[in-house]
What we know:
The complex is a heterodimer.
Chain A: E1 3-5, H1 6-20, E2 24-28, H2 44-48, E3 53-55, H3 60-72, E4 76-80, H4 91-98, H5 101-104, E5 114-119, H6 134-138, E6 144-146, H7 151-163, E7 168-173, E8 180-182, E9 196-199, E10 204-208, H8 211-224, E11 230-234, E12 237-239, H9 243-253, E13 256-263, H10 268-279, E14 289-293, H11 302-308, H12 312-325
Parallel strand pairs in A: 2-3, 2-4, 4-5, 5-7, 6-7, 10-11, 10-13, 13-14
Antiparallel strand pairs in A: 1-8, 6-12, 9-11
Chain B: E1 3-5, E2 15-21, E3 28-29, E4 34-39, E5 44-48, E6 53-58, E7 64-67, E8 71-76, H1 129-137, H2 156-176, H3 203-215, E9 220-228, H4 230-242, H5 252-265, E10 272-274, E11 279-281, E12 287-289, E13 291-293, E14 296-298, E15 301-302, H6 310-326, E16 339-343, E17 362-366, E18 370-376, E19 379-393, H7 399-414, H8 417-420
Parallel strand pairs in B: 12-16, 16-17
Antiparallel strand pairs in B: 1-8, 2-4, 2-7, 3-6, 4-5, 6-8, 9-19, 10-11, 12-15, 13-14, 17-19, 18-19
Helix pairs in contact in B: 1-2, 5-6, 5-7
Amino acid sequence: MPVITYRQALNDALRAELTRDDNVILLGEEIGIFEGSYKITAGLLAEFGPERVRDTPIAEEGFVGAAIGAAMLGMRPVVEIMTLNFSLIAMDQIINHAAKIYGMFGGQTPVPLVIRMPGGGGQQLAATHSQNLEVWFAHVPGLKVVAPSTPADAKALLLAAIRDNDPVIFLENLSLYNTKGEVPDGEHVAELGKAAVARKGTDLTVITYSRATTVALEVARQLAEEGISIEVVDLRSLRPLDRETVCASVRKTSRAVVLEDDWLSYGVGAEISATLMEGAFDYLDAPVRRVAAAEVPLPYAKPLELAALPDANDLIKVIRELLDASRFSPAATDPIAPATR
Amino acid sequence: MPEVVMPRLSDTMEEGVLSRWLKKEGDAVRQGDVLGEIDTDKATMELESFDDGILEKLLVQEGTTVAIGQPLAVIGDGHSTARPEPAAPAPDSIIPSAQEVTSPAASKPVPATTGVQPGAGSRRLLSSPLARREAARHGLDPATITGTGPGGRIVRADVSAAIAAAEVDRSRLAGQAQPTDQGTQPVRPPSSVPDSVEVPLTQVRRVTARRLTESAAAPHFYLTVVVGVDAMFQFRSEVNERFADQGIKVSVTDLVVRACAVTLRSHPQVNSSWAGDRILAHRRINIGVAVALNEGLIVPVVTGADAKSLDQIAAETRSLAEKARAGTLTLQEFSGGTFTISNLGMFGIDNFTAVINPPEAAILAVGAATEEPFVEDGELRSRRILKITMTSDHRVLDGATAAAFLSDLKRRLEDPLRIVI
């Protein structure tokens, strides 16, 4: 299986869909001649021409609205907004139109639209260009929201998003573009709304998504050396949320930490905590804990920026607190659930 | 803006558990108001406010262990402006308001138990949902399980330990019930039962271990004397018969407490303690009495015991022991001891040596009264005796000093009127 970057996986998926379906078009800032601010659309203008790969003015509300109209008339537009932070200008189009048209007009027309946006912090882009606004979208019925963490998922979820008849918000974390992984050639499609167990474990579940998944897996590797077996659930999709996979994992491990790049209050972790209270209450041996970004506009200065974003040390600290609170010991033999270690 | 910090409530305290908030955010508080309760290593104490104002923020949740000097809450004028949190990943130290806290035990009343529950007076039973479910599945009453999680929360590990302990008991019984005449294989416990079960440490056990390890640093020596106690027992029965209508009931320990206290007056070296670079001779004579609890050992103190009458001492030791078992001793009631008595007579121990309760200089171990033959005026008679052993800290006391005290004590115990006069 070829090993390619997350960036290349997205480029491959766009090329495959442009080839497969003439109704697929790309719109966005700098995606044509400049080949994308982050080079995701490299080579596509040359290959498919300006009819299919269209540069737009810096007018998010305008080109998102145009894409919604195109989608209502049978096209399958894939919009690139230069950064997630610019989507704020297009919020009315996304939330009041893209998300609601199918329902408000009695299902007369679906809106098969994908809006791709890079986002996240850690790049020294300062507070207004470093946000994680996933819950702004995940809160809205009528939208689907995905946030892949691996090159393989980037391809599989982008193919699924383009083929889906609902508007899909496709969140790409900047720090993932250069990460590498095995990606199957040809058809590799995932089902939207399904989480993945990225690593199996028995003692504690870390529920996470996007960039934070890479942190969680690294922590799981470290703690495995101490005999602590961490299960990592990669949500992949924030709406629909795969509550069943989340609850099934915690019903097995009895302890849960949510690792999220967004702010703590009202964040993804809050939704997961509530989900676990509803779906795994009798199986919890300790309260659900959350590790999230500091509740500040993200600082520009590198050391402050790093301090504000959740990292492996923050996660390990909370995991240890949680294990201590439930008197976990790696060697304990448990008459209730014979250890599988 | 004044901060309320974890106070130092005892000499041995390094950290405390904020067990209960009695005030909530937004409450007006006055100096001296009780804001909450703190479990120290041996007791539950009140957290007092030193300021007037509005309780603006509770910084720790109930059940949190906090080091001395660390902030617990903020008292202000009620108009503080919200500032952004410090730039560090936000931990989950969010306190649900009182209305939101639902009792984990609210689903069904906790059945009363026969065993003594540590501090079960008004404490809620805390348990994780998983622990409660597993306990029910195995037919265990959660009230009989010691919780070792935060604030005494019962977690699954506690239930597992209880199940494993029960298994071990069962397999031991099964082993005893085996017929021995069939040359059967020795009985093995089922393989799911571990050879040893981890017993979580209670706070009291932890402190006991630490203090007695400190004690091991002291060079100990032991002196034993045999005390004839026929007269003392006779005296005790007379007192108890005569004053039964006043509810007076004197124990052997009470007599020994008063005898020690009075004898210590003339042996100030024994009523001293080692203080690293000097010896402190204590003016007051405070006698500690070791009390065994399910979860460990505690030593309540009869203060100024030499100035208290025998019936006063008897009433006090009884109430102290009851409080110790109920876990409601206050700090004053188990600190400041200058000499300790440990009586294992009721357990049928003939004689033993006790470990010094630091920083005291000595401890007296009292055994059981036994009958022995002895020769008096050329005739063989029998008498009741008590063996008492004093453990001394050689840094403070020498053999001769300790011996002088012990022989005075022996004389006093053998002549009970001198105990009360």
